[in-house]
Write a structure and sequence with these properties.
- This protein is mostly beta strands.
- It has a domain of 133 residues.
- It is built from 1 helix and 28 strands.
- Strands 6, 7, 8, 9, 10 and 11 form a 6-stranded antiparallel sheet that branches. Strands 12, 13, 14, 15, 16 and 17 form a 6-stranded antiparallel sheet that branches.
- A hairpin with a 2-residue loop joins strand 3 and strand 4.
- The longest helix has 12 residues.
- The chain is globular and about 55 Å long.
- The relative contact order is 0.14.
- The N terminus is likely disordered.
């Protein structure tokens, strides 16, 4: 065996990861609840916290719930006070969805950020935030946050994340977005927002300070845009090796990335590619980062050549290591959740989260998207050891 082949085999060995998959809640039968948007964080006492909500239709979700894992079992999901439905007017209700929780060690609290959403006649009402130019209807779409303290108690009310400079936006949100704490009290949050007269949305990031009780605005960066259909959606950000990196869902068959020195001011976007130069072929689906095992990874779905029957190629759910040039190392690609063929259909894995729970262990959670069977699906969890 020549030296080059030895090096290649060693690289494969070094990149090996162990993936254990399990079903947390089973509802293929439809006799229980199909739990969706499951997202975890590790608490200071070693337990895992999960936020989640029921799904009953396309973008049609119930109240935010919480569950705790004590090392043996997950507790029965229980409603989070203040994060349920509210009546806006006789035929319109406001809900909360796409919540992402993170644990803040300095204050021993969980900060959960999502956004509001509206329902009408048993279905999602106007996701674009322009309300279809319907006269007499004027509503607002914005991020919503709440705090869980060290005693497991939640703040009394949901609170709007107020961002100076976006007062006139038709909508702004951070649904499904990864964000991060820095230092003792800084929070960096990516946003997507829209302006009147434009269908496409833009992305930016903001900085807040956090003391375990309040979020105070501390700065906003530049915006990135791509005027194709709905534009740029569901950005996520992370830090690794002294760099801030954003990944962005787009509507042109690609996913994009950008870098920043301060997590506020972003460089021009570049499409995600493998290390051989091939672009990832995607279809308007989010991507997320995972920093674990001393490496930076991207989790994503893509056109793999055999999954055209899956809506927006949303299965399998892949993970790949990123090199220093932020290219996906093709040899490192693995399926966190393989595609589960069901005849002409397969459940989507597009609304997921990845979070480290120790230096070398992470969990990835997802709810099966089975719109072809009344959204009856399982809640899945993968444990990855590096």
């Amino acid at each position: 065996m020549n030296d080059c082949r030895k090096v290649q085999n060693q690289l494969r060995k070094d990149r090996n990861m162990k993936i254990q998959r399990e079903i947390v809640w089973n509802n293929r039968s439809g006799n229980g609840t199909s739990w969706f948007h499951p997202r975890c964080c590790a608490l200071g006492d070693g337990r895992l916290f999960m936020s989640l909500q029921s799904v009953g239709g396309s973008d049609f979700y119930g109240q935010i719930h919480e569950s705790l894992f004590d090392g043996k079992r997950w507790s029965e999901p229980s409603p989070v006070p203040g994060l349920g439905w509210q009546t806006c007017r006789e035929d319109i209700s406001e809900g909360i969805c796409d919540v992402v929780p993170y644990y803040h060690a300095p204050t021993d609290t969980v900060l959960a950020i999502g956004h509001n959403v509206y329902y009408r006649n048993g279905a999602l009402f106007d996701t674009m935030g322009d309300w279809g130019a319907r006269p007499g209807i004027k509503l607002s779409r914005f991020p919503v946050w709440s705090v869980r303290n060290s005693k497991g108690e939640w703040g009394p009310v949901r609170r709007k994340l107020i961002v100076p400079g976006l007062e006139n936006a038709t909508m702004y949100s951070c649904g499904c977005s990864q964000w991060f704490f820095k230092g003792q009290d800084q929070v960096f949050i990516p946003l997507t927002y829209g302006e009147a007269g434009r269908r496409d949305r833009m992305v930016c990031s903001v900085r807040f300070t956090y003391d375990g009780k309040d979020l105070l605005f501390a700065g906003k960066g530049n915006s990135l845009e791509l005027p194709v259909d709905r534009g740029l959606l569901e950005p996520s950000i992370t830090e690794f090796g002294g760099r801030s990196i954003m990944t962005i869902r787009a509507e042109d068959g690609r996913g994009y990335r950008s870098e920043s020195a301060d997590a506020l001011h972003w460089e021009p976007m570049k499409p995600w590619t493998f290390d051989d130069g091939e672009e990832l072929k995607m279809s308007t689906t989010q991507q997320h980062f995972l920093v674990c095992g001393g490496k930076l990874h991207l989790l994503y779905t893509r056109n793999a050549g055999y999954n055209a029957h899956v809506m927006r190629f949303r299965a399998p759910l892949f993970i790949a290591e990123l090199n220093d040039r932020l290219e996906l190392i093709r040899e490192s690609e693995e399926a966190v959740f393989p595609m589960l063929d069901e005849g002409k259909n397969a459940p989507g894995m597009g609304n997921f989260q990845a979070v480290p729970i120790s230096e070398n262990e992470a969990v990835v959670t997802v709810g099966e998207e089975r719109g072809y069977d009344g959204y009856r699906g399982n809640t899945l969890l993968a444990r990855i050891t590096f």
